[in-house]
Amino acid sequence: MMEPIRGGYMSVTLGGVPHRIYVEEAGEGIPLLCLHTAGSDTRQWRGLLNDASVTRHFRCITFDLPWHGKSSPPDGWWKEEYKLTTASYVEAILGVSDALGLNKPIVMGCSIGGRVVLELAAAHGARLGGVIGLQSSSHVDPYYDTQWTHRPDVHGGEVCAGIVSGLMAPQSPEAERWETLWHYMQGGPGVFRGDLHFYKAEGDLRDRLAKIDTAQCPVWLLTGEYDYSCSPEATQETARHIPGSQVEIMTRLGHFPMSENYAHFAEFLQPVLERIRAAR
Q1: How far apart are CA 198 and CA 228, in angstroms?
Q2: In angstroms, rounded to a whole number, what is the distance separating the alpha carbons of residues 27 and 39?
């Protein structure tokens, strides 16, 4: 039986250059725009897109960032090194949202997506219905040499998967953990490292948190207890600088809650979605 997921391509101009962006969606109702993690793609949201209890009330949308998954790099990509920045990330998210005609979408992102939703809330909160940050913190101190993720003498996909494998909870189902790692093994050369330019270097948002008005743009932060990249302590520290934000530490989950154990993650997500529905 076919899954109820609709997929297709759209043209979005980013940085003055046309991009062919792959988009998937399921459901109807309140727009819920979902952002994948560094080096991965929309497949991480397969559980959400197939969850009828969510899609009954929400139009769930996810897209592959340029260079990721089914979204090709722009023409001339071989002439430059890919590096994700705060500005280019925000432009891509808003560009897709505008192209789809979304009205006050809820934006939910994980890892780099959980970071960038803080910038969206700070700079574009009036355009949003709220943000949900998974594994969200305003910065992270580097704890490994990112050069290992793209070297001629190292298998890039396997080393990227190796780096993130320890970030998942041991209780997460084996099949879902390994599928999450498979997505990393398939990433384009240098793409994970390029995303980490935003996550570990350029995208420090500590000085942006004071600009977030949760009365205008509600903020929910959900972090798995087994994550040592964005630790529970880092999320709680971020929340302390965002008055009115709501934070919960999710038991038995790690850095990829929506893909490593969706059924358990849904237990934490559903109450947030219910509050969003009630507010609408």
Answers
A1: 18
A2: 26
Tokens of 89: 């990330």
Q: For 13, phi and psi rounded to 5 degrees?
A: -85, 120
- Closest alpha carbon to 34 in 112, 138, 127: 112
Residue 139 backbone dihedrals phi, psi, to 5 degrees: -165, 170
| 112-138: pLDDT as tens digits | 999 999 999 999 999 999 999 999 999
Rounded distance, CA 206 to CA 86, Å? 13
Single-letter residue type at 13: T
Q: What is the mean pLDDT of residues 147-156?
A: 79
- How far is Cα 24 from Cα 212, in angstroms, rounded to an integer? 29
* Structure tokens that stand for 119 in this block: 């910038």
Q: How far apart are CA 152 and CA 277, in angstroms?
A: 49
> Order of strands, edge to edge, in the sheet holding 246-250?
6-14, 17-26, 58-63, 30-35, 106-110, 130-134, 219-224, 246-250
pLDDT of residue 144: 66
Provide the pLDDT confidence category of residue 163 given band limits of 50, 70 and 90.
Answer: confident
- Residue pair 277/185 in contact (Cβ under 8 Å)? The answer is no
Cα 213 from Cα 233, distance rounded (Å): 22
Give the separation between CA 235 and CA 247, rounded to whole angstroms.
Answer: 8
Two tokens, residue 12: 């979005």
Q: Which two tokens stand for residue 9?
A: 């391509």
Where does residue 212 rank: exposed (0-12), middle (13-18), buried (19+ CB within 10 A)? buried
Spatial distance between the Cα atoms of 45 and 257, rounded to a whole number of angstroms: 10
The torsion angles phi and psi of 170, rounded to 5 degrees, stand at -65, -20
pLDDT tens digits, residue range 91-105?
999 999 999 999 999
